[in-house]
């Protein structure tokens, strides 16, 4: 039977994959919003501002179609850091493609688990390599 820490690592890795599946979709807003905590923020290299769930209108505007960031992605060098039994961070390198263009970045996301057992995103950032 996997340890509690192994289950947390697996849960957080799956949540991060769900985030990137949403980000690579043609209409990421609804799925990313569902994954993100009401206090959550997202930082992307091409956006000069920090997207905050506290400003849902701006968040929805930034994520609106044709926001299709990538056609596919691959994680490398994934590390899950367990902060405590209800919080953790995922750091990794991402290689994503859009047509013939390649995107490489280092990423970090912090997740927290609510009393309902659901993991939500508190912070996500990407830094171009």
UniProtKB/TrEMBL annotation:
Domain DUF4440: 15-120
InterPro entries in the cross-refs: DUF4440 (IPR027843), NTF2-like_dom_sf (IPR032710)
Pfam families, per database record: DUF4440
Name used for this protein in its record: DUF4440 domain-containing protein
